[in-house]
Design a protein that fits this description.
Blueprint: E1 18-19, E2 22-23, H1 40-54, H2 63-67, H3 71-75, H4 127-134, E3 145-147, H5 154-163, H6 167-170, E4 176-178, E5 192-194, H7 204-208, E6 214-216
Antiparallel strand pairs: 1-2, 3-6, 4-5
């Protein structure tokens, strides 16, 4: 079993629960009750449901069995936990989320670039120094970060020219970089470089890249942060 961070986005953030060979259950799926700060009961219940459904294989989003089990009944009343008023889910509104994060990034031209101070080496450090301390290791294994088929041109035609290459800023491990376009065959167009060996498995790239062009796959055993 691979340990992951607990998802606390609540009802609206419940993801597709199944994937080839497994399923997300408990806090990893977002079944934590944020008001009560309790999730053991929903973790056990969703685990039982996953076990019961394993034989027939979970289908679609995997929410069908969860919906009739009481787990959704636990999550839905606290759907708007961040709202100013908490009325046990009876508010006359709800916080909508009608499009993926990748579609919410705005063009770089609408913003003023931020001039961040350089790391001082005392209280603040550069990304690669912090990366070294993480013990990340992906030695002698194929890249687990690949551009999806049919989207090979997205980095050079959309991500960089329209959004100024956000992946080179939000990635905490400097996995994504753009060249200056001076290399042979680039014709002056900055090209994406993927340093998959640096990845610390935050998976931000799989949901925030323009058109979700990166296919994040599980690395081979032993890879990632120590």
């Amino acid at each position: 079993m691979h340990c992951v961070w607990s998802a606390r986005g609540g009802y609206h953030a419940i993801p597709k629960l199944t994937f080839p060979g497994g399923a997300l259950i408990g806090c990893s799926a977002g079944f934590l009750n944020s008001i009560k700060i309790k999730g053991s009961h929903t973790a056990m219940k969703s685990g039982m449901l996953a076990a019961e459904a394993a034989y027939a294989a979970l289908t679609s989003t995997g929410l069908e069995a969860v919906a009739v089990s009481g787990v959704i009944d636990e999550a839905e009343p606290v759907v708007d936990i961040s709202s100013a008023f908490i009325l046990n889910g009876l508010e006359p509104w709800t916080l909508g989320n009608d499009k993926p994060d990748s579609a919410k990034t705005k063009p770089a031209k609408d913003f003023t670039p931020i001039d961040y101070p350089k790391p001082d080496g005392v209280l603040t450090f550069d990304l690669l120094s912090n990366l070294q301390r993480s013990g990340t290791n992906h030695a002698d294994q194929p890249s687990h970060l690949r551009i999806k088929a049919g989207k090979e041109d997205v980095p050079s035609t959309e991500s960089f020219p329209v959004f100024a290459g956000p992946e080179q800023r939000f990635c905490p491990a400097k996995v994504y970089e753009y060249t200056d376009g001076s290399e042979a065959g680039a014709n002056g167009v900055p090209q994406l470089v993927i340093n998959a060996q640096n990845c610390v498995h935050c998976k931000c790239c799989s949901i925030k890249m323009p058109q979700e062009y990166i296919n994040w796959t599980v690395p081979e055993g032993g890879g990632g942060p120590a």
